[in-house]
Amino acid sequence: MNKIAPSMLDCDFTRLGEELRRVEQAGAFVIHLDIMDGVFVPAMTFGDRICAAANRVTDLPLDVHLMVQKPLNFIQGFADAGADYITVHAESDEPLAAIREINRLGLTAGLSVKPNTPFDAILQFLDEVGLALIMTVEPGKGGQAFMPDMLAKVSAIKNAAHLRGKENLVVSIDGGVNPTNAASAIAAGADWLVAGSCLFKSGDLNGVMTGLQNA
Ligand code: DX5
Ligand code: ZN
User: Fold this and answer.
1) From the centroid of its chain, how far is CA 69?
2) What confidence tens digit (pLDDT) does each residue in 71-113 have?
3) Which of 138, 151, 203, 204 is the most exposed place for a label (fewest CB within 10 A)?
């Protein structure tokens, strides 16, 4: 069964607890929290207090995606709030220092690349991360169209990890994922699928989750 990481970005925040329980009962693997600072990307979302609230509701691991210019400013707060994975962007400030701080705190560090950033931007960090997040949309909002040509990056990073004996590297994709494109992502080597609007805007969360899990 495919491992699904629901992005809470487009859930009903007036019922965050219920939404978390819904995706957990539907078989979510981890909870993906999209943190945006209004600088690295134009939008601003939420901070570590929402992460701490989610941590009080679900026992699932929390997969925090920092779309922020200065990730070093946020890591301790999300670690204290219960994050299990913290992913920073190769395009943000001091990504290696951020990765090392995440590792120092005993969490799993991830590195993400935007669509226009070549996959080999990850290679310099590969030995120090446990997760690679390939953006399949331009980061900043949910509900965008999937960019299938990003799947070549998934295969390339999977191969690079294999060549370095990093068989445990989690390769995740994020943005525009739905049951019609999930199979191609899995075939390309994706281990996790982040999905937001297809789950929370469909009116059939359980059906869409099943479609993603079985793609
Ligand atoms: C985009 C976020 C994605 C996105 C996923 O900046 O990182 O997680 O919200 O949402 P959908 O699945 O709606 O593209
Ligand atoms: Zn994300």
Assistant:
1) 17
2) 999 999 999 999 999 999 999 999 999 999 999 999 999 999 9
3) 203
What's 3-214's CATH class?
Answer: alpha beta
**pLDDT tens digits for 186-214?**
999 999 999 999 999 999 999 999 999 99
Query: Domain residues of the chain, as ranges?
Result: 3-214
- 149 catalytic? Reply is no
The Cα 15–Cα 205 span in angstroms is 15
Which entry of 37, 63, 174, 191 is annotated as an active-site residue?
Answer: 174
Q: Which residues line ligand 1 (CB under 6 A)?
A: 7, 9-10, 32, 34, 65, 67, 137, 139-144, 174-177, 194-198
**34 is a catalytic site residue:** yes
